[in-house]
Amino acid sequence: MSSATVHFPTSLHKQTTEAVAAFFSASPVVDTVLIVNSLARGQATPASDLDFAILVDPAVHAADIQHLEQQWTAFAAAYPTFAQFRQSGRFANIHLDIVTGQYAAAVWDDGGGPDYFEVEIGNQVARSLPYADPGPYFQRLQAEWLPYYGEHLRSQRLSMVRDACLYDLDYVPFFVGRGLYFQAFDRLYRAFQEFLQALFIARRTYPIAYNKWIREQVEHWLNLPDLYAQLPAILSISQLESDELTQKASDLQVLLAQWTQD
Q: Cβ atoms within 10 A of the Cβ of 166, count?
């Protein structure tokens, strides 16, 4: 692929992306330059920033990665197109991570979720867009993680995430009873994100975030418009200092039982 196959919202987005890709593609330690997030999905707007994951093989020495980062910092500071891009809007920026593609599934203790194991794979492997021909290491990652990871791990993680969601939901009426309404809302929002994580695990689909692009992911990727229609109401609180939070937690518990069973 080349920049010709990417939908750029502005010529400045295109020029900036080409400069980033040219710099990293010239490095022998880089396997693949990955465009990630909204630009990779054709959703970027003129106000969008630019996001990249620069994939290197884990066998690359840490000193070589550090040297690459230093070279990039110097190049980015001196290249005029990057300054132009950052000045094009208040939130215009270039977000770039050098990644090794080593994804480790954590085991949570009480209140440990959500985590970003599936999100990282979703953004960097499933939903990324290689700027040029994908390198051999990226192709190995695709073979390892797509279409989804193994059933044994999936079953373990689904059970863990569902339990964590229920644990946080149980805290909501407890905190409401103590008059700790903001803490109760914090638990509700955490449980909401854990619900989304469980939902995607149950449907063997990698997400890209639990705090944005919710409609795109649930309604379109999972093809669950009826479920999505119920989600905004879970976090719509008209009176924070009331039992309304307890009812919202109960509503989310019903959705968890209905939509995340294996």
A: 16
Four-way CATH pick for 151-259: 1.20.120, 3.40.50, 2.40.128, 1.10.10: 1.20.120
Q: What is the CATH number of domain 3-145?
A: 3.30.460.10
pTM: 0.93
- The neighbour count for residue 32, using CB atoms within 10 Å, is 24
Q: Do 21 and 32 contact (CB within 8 A), yes or no?
A: no
With 0-12 / 13-18 / 19 or more C-beta atoms within 10 angstroms meaning exposed / middle / buried, residue 25 is middle
Q: Is the dihedral of CA 62, 39, 45, 80 positive or negative?
A: positive
Structure-token pair, residue 126: 């499933």
Instruction: Quickly state the pLDDT bin for 111 (edges 50, 70, 90).
Output: low
SS3 22: helix
